[in-house]
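User: Sequence recovery, please. Input:
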């Protein structure tokens, strides 16, 4: 078997492309979200198809939505059997020439390797494989032969990389140019050798208005499975902030993130209209996945104005919409506008501790007063949202590198201290709080400084390269700081979190239910047991706990 990819695409009458979204190691199948990044790439390619020398046919495969056995290395044989049979039946109907895999995050790394190797060894060594996404953009070397984990080759005959091309950064322009070059046999010599995966620097699109209006047709294959899902769509790219917990904020590696761009408001509204009017697309809600929802005030106001006009003339928008917002940008007026349009802001509070907010570089200042105002503003917004009956989805991260007993105490006090006529903020308010345990995601600054600067310890430092049974559990095994062990952090956080959850169940806060206390308790014991033994049957528990996003682990 030879993975050498000759210039086989020239003189084709039709080029068949498969876009593939891989899956994670373990039972987790994604946060109920459908991403549309690959649609942008496909839509752009189709916009430019006049410049290509042949017709294009495309399909989309989302392995999270396929009926496949569990993907884990303890269970690989049945998985490979299921995957081979699924891909073979796709290939029989649609003998594809090229597969574009979106290795969106480090969670999908091993599955991306498995899928690519399987295509080259079982389907056809002539299929070209292109990979892109955050993980390949930050760690392109991990897709070359010498850096692919050796255990992968226990299952596949060939030792060379199965990847022909890797696109770093944004994909639309570079993918289109790659296809054109392949069809015209214009690739520079050496770009496409048999041993190495060619790394292509993604060209950043300067105006998002150059992207065509979104077309969802490729998703139609999963029409039935989309029911009840959340559709993610991007209207903007790039972020002006540099939070240390954020992968895209690794600005030196991902320069496109520094380039903040937005689609025109008219195009955004038009795409919302397309979602509403695509009859077969029955989703549950929409999430505008921009790093921050129109951080520029004038654009945000213009969105409200035009969306109001749209709903006044065409009726109430049928879907709830989620957006990311920030404590320092969001205003009281925004909360009222959000309520009017059934938009739910998701806000990363992250911590009630000034020292932790500083570690995270959540606000670009050293002025403690500004941090105090930030924390106070969260309290005021919680109270206001209760008064006006609007919902805010708050994120709080526990077990973070640099966490100390004081940090946990600050969180406890913020929610549970009895400072409102003998009652706490949590007793007197409905608070939708997504308490997440820190995950050691590579590519974020906090991961890089955890051990050397913050005195922590990541027990499974290269978890995404290891054949563990469940990546989402092992990557949380982190000792936060010199003074705090993983197990103490878990216990201290559990103690205040269970009281908090109890208050929210009593308050009948949306998204909480009485089983949450039980689930939290079970999670705490299983998590502690796992840490003590460094192995545990965690898998059976995980899907249940993830039913509710705001319960850790
Ligand atoms: S605001 Fe959000 S997207 Fe921007 S750097 Fe911070 S976490 Fe990342």
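Assistant: Recovered sequence (553 residues):
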């Amino acid at each position: 078997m030879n993975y050498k990819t000759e210039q086989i695409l020239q003189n084709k009458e039709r080029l068949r492309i498969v876009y593939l979204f891989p899956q994670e190691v373990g039972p987790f199948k994604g946060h109920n979200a459908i991403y549309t990044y690959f649609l942008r790439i496909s839509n752009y390619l189709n916009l430019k198809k006049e410049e290509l020398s042949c017709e294009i046919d495309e399909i989309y495969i989302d392995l999270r939505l396929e009926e496949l056995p569990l993907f884990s290395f303890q269970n690989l044989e049945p998985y490979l059997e299921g995957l081979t049979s699924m891909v073979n039946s796709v290939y029989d109907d649609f003998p594809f020439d090229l597969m574009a895999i979106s290795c969106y995050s480090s969670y999908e790394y091993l599955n991306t390797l498995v899928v690519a190797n399987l295509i080259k060894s079982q389907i056809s060594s002539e299929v070209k494989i292109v990979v892109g996404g955050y993980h390949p953009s930050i760690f392109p070397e991990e897709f070359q032969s010498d850096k692919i984990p050796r255990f992968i080759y226990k299952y596949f005959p060939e030792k060379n990389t199965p990847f022909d091309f890797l696109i770093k950064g944004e994909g639309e322009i570079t993918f289109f140019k790659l296809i054109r070059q392949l069809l015209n046999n214009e690739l520079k010599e050496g770009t496409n050798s048999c041993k190495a995966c060619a790394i292509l620097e993604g060209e950043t699109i300067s105006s998002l208005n150059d992207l065509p209006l979104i077309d969802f047709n490729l998703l139609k294959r999963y029409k039935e499975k989309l029911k009840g899902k959340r559709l993610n769509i991007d209207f903007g790219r790039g972020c002006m902030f540099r939070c240390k917990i954020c992968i895209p904020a690794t600005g030196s590696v991902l320069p496109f993130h520094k380039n903040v761009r937005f689609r025109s408001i008219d195009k955004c509204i038009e795409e919302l209209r397309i979602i509403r009017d695509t009859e077969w697309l029955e989703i549950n809600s929409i999430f505008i996945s921009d790093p921050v929802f129109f951080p520029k005030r004038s654009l945000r106001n213009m969105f409200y104005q035009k969306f109001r006009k749209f709903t006044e003339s065409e009726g109430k928008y049928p879907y709830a919409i989620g957006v990311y917002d920030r404590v320092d940008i969001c205003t009281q007026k925004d909360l009222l506008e959000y309520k009017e349009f059934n938009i739910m802001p998701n806000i990363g509070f992250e911590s009630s501790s000034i020292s932790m907010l500083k570690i995270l570089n959540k606000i670009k200042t050293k002025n403690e007063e500004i941090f105090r105002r930030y924390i106070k503003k969260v309290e005021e917004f919680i109270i206001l949202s209760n008064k006006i009956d609007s919902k805010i989805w708050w994120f709080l991260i526990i077990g973070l590198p640099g966490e100390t007993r004081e940090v946990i105490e600050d969180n406890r006090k913020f929610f549970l201290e009895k400072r409102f006529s003998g009652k706490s903020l949590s007793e007197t308010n409905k608070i939708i709080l997504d308490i997440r345990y820190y995950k050691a995601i590579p590519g974020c600054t906090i991961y890089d400084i955890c051990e050397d600067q913050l005195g922590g310890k990541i027990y499974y430092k290269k978890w995404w390269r290891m054949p563990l049974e469940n990546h989402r559990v092992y990557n949380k095994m982190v000792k936060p700081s010199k003074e705090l062990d993983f197990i103490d952090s878990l216990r201290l956080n559990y103690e205040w979190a269970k009281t908090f959850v109890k208050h929210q169940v009593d308050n009948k806060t949306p998204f909480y239910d009485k089983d949450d206390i039980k689930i939290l308790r079970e999670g705490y014991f299983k998590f502690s047991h796992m840490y003590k033994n460094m192995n545990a049957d965690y898998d059976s528990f995980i899907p249940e706990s993830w039913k509710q996003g705001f319960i850790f682990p």
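The domain at 14-201 is CATH 3.40.50.280 (Rossmann fold).
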